[in-house]
Amino acid sequence: MNSKKLLFPYVLVTPAVIITVLIVFIPIIETSIMSLFNYVIWKPKDYKFIFLSNYIKVLKDPVFWISLKNTAIWVTGTVSLQLILGFVTAMLLNRDFWWRGIARSLILIPWVTPSVITALMWRWMYDGNSGVINDLLVRVGILKEYFPWLANNSTALGSVMVALMWQGFPFFSIMILAGLQAIPDSLYEAAEVDGATPLQRFTMITLPMLIPILFTSILLRIIWVANSMDVIYVMTGGGPGYSTYTLPLYSFIKAYKFMDFGYASTLAIFLTLFLVAVVAGYVVKVLKSQGSME
Amino acid sequence: MKKSFIIILMMVLMSAASFAAGQKETKSANVRFWYHFDNPESAVTPLVQKFEKENPGIKITPESIAWGAYNQKLLTAIAAGSPPDVSQVKLWWQPQLIEMGALTPLDDYINNWSGKNDIYDNVWKLTRYKDGKQYLMPLQMVILYMYYRADIFKEMGLVPAKTRAEFLTLARKLTRDTNGDGKIDQYGFGIRGARGGHDWWGTFVLSSGARFFLPGGSSGLITPEAIAANQWYIDLYRKYKVSPPTTPNDGFKEIIANMKSGKTAMTIHHIGSSKTMEAALGDKISAAPVPKGTERYWTSFGDEENGVFSASKYKDAAFKWVAFLATAKNNAVWQKASGQVSVNKSNGETSEAKSNRFLKATIDSADFAHVLPALPQTAEFVESVWPTTMQRAFNGEISSKEMMEIFAKLFSGK
Asked: What is this model's ipTM?
């Protein structure tokens, strides 16, 4: 009886483990193996084991370094913008106003819009010949003439980041809103009795109480944004030149434009390693700061 | 007794079933056919019905594949061991497909095919692989020409350019402020800076001193003449500003939309887009051969063929289908939907064909139409290296020389 009881949790968890092994671990192992081979799909005769040659080639590849730099800008910029906008929106949605219910539903629209639709929509809004963004900026006098936002190498990445900020900020809004509603009113009332200013209430009560939620949300968004390439691919295809190349996009292009699956796998491994390092560093730092607060 | 009767009955039934299955395998062939159409009004269904009626026992299973991912889907399907039996392919894919051993030589079939002599001789010549074998069955062709806004030309008293120098003068005149607000709202030339724009580039660069290879086999892309020709092309955008500011990212949709809206007064494309251009602009749009470069004419021969895959179990049936599509009457039906030019001589001689101004520009360009080198690197050049490098040059990140060195390195195979 006892042994049956002990086995029961393992039985429950087995399907999930099997699925994870099949769809996550096996592809990871296969990618790692593929990265050690010269595997260009249209050159079957040249397929051979080359050990770490792909890794050395990647480190000498200037496009890899451009993509890595762009990935860092892309993740930091997009997640920060989403967090700021999400925070402000959550604070507003936490206030009492008569159409709050509708506003909370409307805010989800960007989040539920498919990435390809988001990308196409923003691409046309940015259009350098007839885009609504240019039209508005010219009308209010900020621009003298239409500007090719996505065709200029100094504005292309930033423009795509704004599109992704729009798509992703509702996630932060909803998460932070949930956190805000979990803060007991008694804390604010006590602070008010003690004479705390609104700013003090925000920094001493709201922020510390939201830290666990912010930690989880930021962590999830870093992983998602770092891996996301669909919006970039549809909006610019990585161009102009390499100005919107990020690591997952470069890996995709190497795999599906050059059909070089060995090299693309190596790039994917590098991306995974960087992501693990960033996430681990972030977790350690946050845990430490939480420890010092306690 | 009862038991043995049941066993005998089962054996009889099983042998009958296996005989029927065997019969089915030899008599009926299921040919998987991959194709793509820009025009959603595809001609495939009526042609399949006609073919199946004429060839009982052969079933065609057509699968429409999105053009953007066609090449990668085909290569991955071949690598995975499950290619279709027949697929529409581009000529510049041929080297990679042959490298993979994916295509069946069709020479024996074609030599015994009655429709062989109705295909243009030049089409056979251009589509034959460098090993002397014919792997592809011609399906359709286009030759790129210059579209121009006839109404604007008439208003300004201009005629299409015959030379590169005339073209620049023309493009500069056509780049203007049409409504007097001090801003340029019409550009002389719509350049395709994104994927597919190598045909625009080739028209001016490969006609003015640049060659992929010199007679001795060394690169003809890094000679002083080639670099100067490339600089001239970059200058159209950077120095003379005769194309819209969005040029580096402009693809097919943008260059066509800009012509339709009057944002540009000239661009390069082929007869495939003439229907939609004419629907939007009527007589205001016309076409002429591209201008001559400093050395020669160069325009792109665009093509599509059908390949029969070596992994196919039904090669005979597959060839019957590709031959059916290359036969004049059926090819005419196909081209009506594709908007491209038939590969059959007899279809080119109809009065309808002769009165079409876009077809005239196509035929007038036939003598100087070229194809890209039959090398495996050509696919990479077209798909990725050309657009990325051209965009960098247009944005001033690299010089003309650096750009041409990247191409020369790619084609050297190092």
From this structure: 0.82
